[in-house]
Design a protein that fits this description.
Helix content: over 70%
Family: Belongs to the TALE/PBX homeobox family.
Number of strands: 0
Shape: rod-shaped
GO biological process, one term: cell differentiation
Distance between the termini: 68 Å
Structural class: mainly alpha
Largest sheet: none
Subcellular location: Nucleus
Protein name: Pre-B-cell leukemia transcription factor 1
GO molecular function, one term: DNA-binding transcription factor activity, RNA polymerase II-specific
DNA sequence: GAGCATGATTACCG
DNA sequence: CGGTAATCATGCTC
């Protein structure tokens, strides 16, 4: 009866309302392991799908139950008719009913199993954040890149800085951390590839920060990596 | 559709 | 616990 427990836990079987919230709680618990996503939209989406599965499950279950009782009635009638010609013991009737119920419950088991599978697929699809990865918008990456390249000598934002960036970019702090982690490693791995970008943002922040007069005339010379921290492309802020 | 870009996850380290 | 490195899975471009 593992299937029953599983369906109950997922809120597919069991009471209407408590079930749904139980499922949501299960999802929340599973997602709490480190998923940085806010997830309210995903949850409502998940719930909708789960409700759909629930509906199918219950209507099918009802159908089976109805069919079972109909069939049982049918057999009982047959037995009743037969009882005119030969004696039929209550034991025999019981046995027949038992056989019918076993047959139908095995069909129900299949229904439960396929419902379980559907739920599992749904879960894996909705809980695996990688599946619904979205690129950050232009403005967000702009902000992040600006910070990264203006702190190229030490591109490790503090917790507060991360929060600030997260707020600016409308993403979570974990996403900021992920972004910087990825950025650092990828920048280090292939500095050449980021040269252009680095120069761009270096100039941008330079112009932005210090509104000094003309200084953008030297922004296209190739790389001169230094040995400390992270090699800067061609523009070194100071220090 | 192949191939690269990119965000997220995982294993491991200090 | 926060970092790196490798990897996964998807998005995007050609």
């Amino acid at each position: 009866m593992r299937l029953d427990n599983m369906l109950l836990a997922e809120g597919v079987s069991g009471p209407e309302k408590g079930g749904a919230s139980a499922a949501a709680a299960a999802v929340a618990a599973a997602a709490a392991g480190g998923s940085p996503n806010d997830g309210s939209i995903e949850h409502s989406d998940y719930r909708a799908k789960l409700t759909q599965i629930r509906g199918i499950y219950h209507s099918e279950l009802e159908k089976y139950e109805q069919a079972c009782s109909e069939f049982t009635n049918h057999v009982m009638n047959l037995l009743r008719e037969q009882s005119r010609t030969r004696p039929i013991s209550p034991k025999e009737i019981e046995r027949m009913v038992g056989i019918i119920h076993r047959k139908f419950s095995s069909i129900q088991m299949q229904l439960k199993q396929s419902t379980c599978e559907a739920v599992m697929i749904l879960r894996s699809r909705f809980l695996d954040a990688r599946r619904k990865r979205r690129n950050f918008n232009k403005q967000a990456t702009e902000v992040l890149n600006e910070y990264f390249y203006s702190h190229l000598s030490n591109p490790y934002p503090s917790e507060e800085a991360k929060e600030e960036l997260a707020k600016k970019c409308a993403i979570t702090v974990s996403q900021v951390s992920n972004w910087f982690g990825n950025k650092r490693i990828r920048y280090k791995k292939n500095i050449g590839k980021f040269q252009e970008e680095a120069n761009l943002y270096a100039v941008k922040t330079a112009v932005d920060a210090a509104s000094v007069s003309s200084q953008a005339s030297q922004a296209n010379s190739p790389a001169t990596p230094n040995s400390g921290g992270y090699p800067a492309p061609c523009y070194t802020p100071d220090g």
